[in-house]
Amino acid sequence: MNQKELLINKIAQDKIDFHLGLHLLLEDKYDFKQLFTTLHYYILNSIPEKSDYNSKTYQKAVNSIPLRPTYTPVVILQKFSPKIAFNKLAVLPENENKKTITCLLWIFKITDTERRTTECKNGCGHFWHEIN
Ligand SMILES: [Zn+2]
């Protein structure tokens, strides 16, 4: 796990405040493609419904993103199914990048928390769920 991956997992597990963590994730030179790929992978992995990923928890996450509902990435996530939405987010102009990462980090925090409190509850062996 690299530093960014460790940070993402700490944010998801409430070991670092969401907004502080987001700030740390996006400071200096951050690699959008790398963060996007990591978060995309993490989100899909954390959702049990592998056919379309459109779970109740995913919907709850998308509908509670802490950004204005009129922002383009939020609109896309609310309007399209997960697979289509992620394809669209990947090719948005650069000035949407930080908003996109904010959305994905929020979604992962919600979907990972759901997984930790359900299927991971009695021990799961996910090494990233063992960090301090
Ligand atoms: Zn786990």
Quick structural gist:
Pfam families: DUF5958. The chain has 132 residues and is mainly α.
Your description of this structure?
There is one protein chain. α3 (32-46) packs parallel to α7 (97-117) and α4 (56-62) packs antiparallel against α7. This protein is 60% helix and 0% strand. The chain has one domain (3-121). By secondary structure, the protein is mostly helical. The structure holds zinc ion (ZN). Zinc ion binds at residues 116, 120, 124, 126, 129. Pfam families: DUF5958.
Portion in strands: under 5%
Q: Name the overall outline.
A: globular
Overall number of domains: 1
Largest sheet: none
Mean pLDDT: 96
Q: Rounded to an integer, what's the Rg over CA atoms?
A: 14 Å
Number of helices: 7
DSSP, total strands: 0
The helical percent reads 55-70%
CA-to-CA gap between the ends? 14 Å
How is the quaternary structure best described? Answer: single chain
List unreliable stretches of 5+ residues.
none
Pairing-aware structural class of the strands and helices?
Answer: mainly alpha
Bound molecules: zinc ion
The SSE order reads: HHHHHHH
Brief descriptors of the model:
binds zinc ion, 132 residues, single chain, DUF5958, mainly alpha, 60% helix
What is the strand and helix layout of this fold?
Layout: H1 3-12, H2 18-26, H3 32-46, H4 56-62, H5 72-79, H6 82-90, H7 97-117
Helix pairs in contact: 1-2, 1-7, 3-7, 4-7, 5-6
The structure holds zinc ion (ZN).
